Amino acid sequence: MAVVTLKKIVKYYDETLAVRGIDLEIADKEFLVLVGPSGCGKTTTLRMIAGLEDISDGEILIGDTVVNDVPPKDRNIAMVFQNYALYPHMSVHQNMSFGLKLKRVERSEIDRRVQEAARILDIESLLDRKPKQLSGGQRQRVAMGRAIVRDPAVFLFDEPLSNLDAKLRVQMRTEIKKIHQKVRTTTVYVTHDQVEAMTLADRVVVMNHGVIEQVDTPQQLYHNPRTKFVAGFIGSPAMNMIPVSLLDSGSGLKLDLGDGVQLQVPAERTAQYRPHAGKARLLLGLRPEHLTDTASLSQAGGAAEGQTFSPIIDVSEPMGMETLVYFQLQGITVCGKASPDVEAPSGKPMQLTAKLQNMHLIDDESGLVL
Ligand code: ATP
Predict the structure, then answer these.
(1) What predicted TM-score, i.e. pTM, was given to this entire model?
(2) Which end of the chain is more exposed for a tag (fewer CB within 10 A), N or C?
(3) Whose CA is nearest to atom 7 of ligand 1?
(4) Window from 46-60, 77-91, 194-208, 219-233 with minimum mean pLDDT
(5) Residue 12, beta-bridge partner list
(6) Is beta strand 203-208 parallel, antiparallel or unpaired with respect to 186-191?
(7) Is 44 in the pocket of ligand 1 (CB under 6 A)?
(8) DSSP designation for 202
(9) Does ligand 1 have an atom closer than 6 angstroms to the CB of 129?
(10) Band of the pLDDT at 305, cuts 50, 70, 90?
(11) How far apart are CA 106 and CA 108, in angstroms?
(12) Which pLDDT score is estimated for 337?
């Protein structure tokens, strides 16, 4: 059992307030990912859980024990770093068993655990090699093996894949997920890569400027972001955010996107959005996949679902599975996704369908999704 609880955690580095009183409960066996832009406080949070940074205020519990004053070696955690931190003069076996030897675990038990971890990680044939005889991905596995043999209550990962090339990173991501499914150890994982966060996590914590913006499952974060920051951070290409006026015609609501484009708000959203009609600084949040070319939609029988307009396409980017199309609205670049079979020549209009049943209305002043 290893629930990790953070209660009103604050971290100052001299004058810098790096973490601003965060509350978080990480469930037993959960894979939780901390994600956010550089400097948001995710590494500091992880290092406070590990005991590598002092906590300025608040409490951290591992299980039922407050660990604020417990040294890292006694917290029953294992940390995997970006730079692997393997001992170069030791073999893989020695690297993996070193921590257990220090703890005076019996030799037969050490061997059993190293063999078991090597089997899980598929590195049984590498146990006699030195780190310099391994590829980056293999070194990363050894670093994980060293964590697994300790059978800790919690795994802490600090950007473990950022030294690997793009292809290997994707491969190792899948490996890490598989390993967690086998060992089920409570895991806290830090990354700045939102795709890594979404693919690995049971729940993702999005941090920004030392606070938590949202804690949710990947699906919820994507479909129901609660703030402008989360809406813009999760998803690639990013969600379009178009300044709009919300007009109440009595019978329904309209969005005026400028440049002569007006769209009807779906009836089921009218009651929710009506109180915001006439408000300044509203943004329409619409993901590129909800702005698609009408021609291929009507072939698929879906044209009735949305509303159309015909912007002049600036640039199109064929991606294989789809073609990204870019156009301007009020001087803002907007991205849509068209079928790869449709021609999208620059400088020509293209009829697009906006699926407003998937829209978000964002108050740019408060930064909240309404
Ligand atoms: P990155 O992805 O760049 O590592 P991060 O989200 O992990 O970013 P932290 O390393 O936790 O961010 O840093 C949070 C804030 O604390 C930043 O403003 C950073 O400059 C500051 N900070 C981090 N470590 C120290 C330190 N040892 N001394 C002073 N300030 C620090």
Answers:
(1) 0.90
(2) N
(3) 43
(4) 77-91
(5) 17
(6) unpaired
(7) yes
(8) S
(9) no
(10) low
(11) 6
(12) 95
